[in-house]
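Exercise 7.
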Amino acid sequence: MPGNISKRDGIDKKRIIVLFIISAVLFLLSRAAKLAGLYYPDLVEKHFSRGIYPVTSRFQTSVANIFPFSLYELVIIALVAYGIYRIIRLIRSFIKKEFTREILNFLAVLVFLVSTGVFLFQFLWSLNNYRLPLKDQLGLDVKESSIEDLAATYKAIVLRANDIRSVLQYDQDTGTDRAKVRNVLETAWEGYSALAEEFDLFHANRVRVKGLLFSRIQTISGYTGVYSFITGEPNINIEPPLITLPHTACHEIAHQMGVTFEDEANYAAFLACKNHPDILFQYSGYLSALTYVGNALYSQSPELYSEISNLISEDIKRDQAEIRAFWNRRLKETASKIADKVNETYLKSNNQPSGMQSYGKFVDLLIAHYLQNNSI
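Solution. The predicted structure, written as tokens, is:
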């Protein structure tokens, strides 16, 4: 009889059924929340982004702040170790002729873990993908801009970057100094203090950015940081040149504040760097903006780009060369393409239909900023 077979094979049908039911409920709740976000962004903004999320994220970050290392990496290590353990059990069960029992248990646990992960991802962070656009919350009039507006913005950024770089004491030979990297990780949040006084979207609470122990994995994939929704931690790759780290750190903190879109996080990070008391942060923000806007202008008018780029100081040119040399030396093309494909799939499935191209909208926000303030 089936009952005797189940007992003989050690198959706990009740447990397996319960796990699948719970998994189905979690998936359905996640899907319902996503649909609600698509159709009711005002409600998401009011009840999640400005209601539930600030409470849960602050609790997560308060716990994560206690530890100087990345809890996110520990979670990844634990999941990998558990996966290896389950695979070993599967192999052993095949040898002992207990494969049916083990594969059913394995599938039930796998589906449960995936559904739990999706549920937590949605309700601990991802619903912010459906909140009101950053431009509306900051009062920016983003619209189609002319090449002249783009060029004017680029020139303003170049001139401001030149001014900041002229007083910055930065030696490329000591750019990987651990004390300086640690200072970036520990103080990045300070750039949001002034912003929090002007916009209630941001907060002035301490957020400890974590340097990834396995930064090399991100380097070969071409990535600079990751926000962990499980632990509430901004994590960054600490291998790139020091001058790039402040903007990256502020970018990941923007994600912690519920700014999920990459272009919006880049702009929030620019504002945080601009308002940071440390000149290294200020320069990092403008250097990033210079790169993005410069690339956009080059694609529209190589002549204008070349003309304005002639104004870039020699120090900045050396810094740009250092950054290019780093990525040319370390980036692995195959790994980068795979990582880009995964990231693009993620972006498109989370209300960012432009995929990787959404990074380019950072330029639109910078142009709107320049036109509105007549300065950058």
